[in-house]
Input
Amino acid sequence: MRNPLFAVFFMLLLLAVTAVPSNAQFDKGQNYVGGRIGIGYYGSAFSFGADYEYGFADVGEYGPGRIGIGGTIDYWGWSDGSGDNYWSYSWVPIGVMAYYHLNLDNRKLDPFGGIGLGYEVVTATWHSSYGSLYNGSAGYSSGIYITGQVGVRYFFSPNLAAQARLGFGASLLSVGLDYKF
Output
């Protein structure tokens, strides 16, 4: 299993086969923490990320769904150029998010959408046969960003869920696991 995405999908499939019945969905007063892998928003590079969310409001308090607040952090890097002369980039977006969770009869599914604001730390380094020289102005720079996501969690048990997200501003596409406590 050399491909990390294959390993994650295999693990999720194994969990689905051995899953116990659950009555889980997103709930007010609960914490959700997880890790994920995917594709970074810039450079189409392999990304790693983590997220946290707290169930802030229940059905009926602010509409027909549930509301959560939380944060995300991601990392990815890539190189651009050839031979001894190339740029290397690293990206670390850190953001706060507000999520809206749909209320479904099927408590194993938790579809959601979110919007957020964050700060991305971007590092660009020029490499050549003469050595490396830091340069933060290689077409990308650190700064404030806006992000949005849509996704879904599938609860295998009351406390463990697989998640998939599609978004902009941070990771483009990701899959992972969340733990509810």
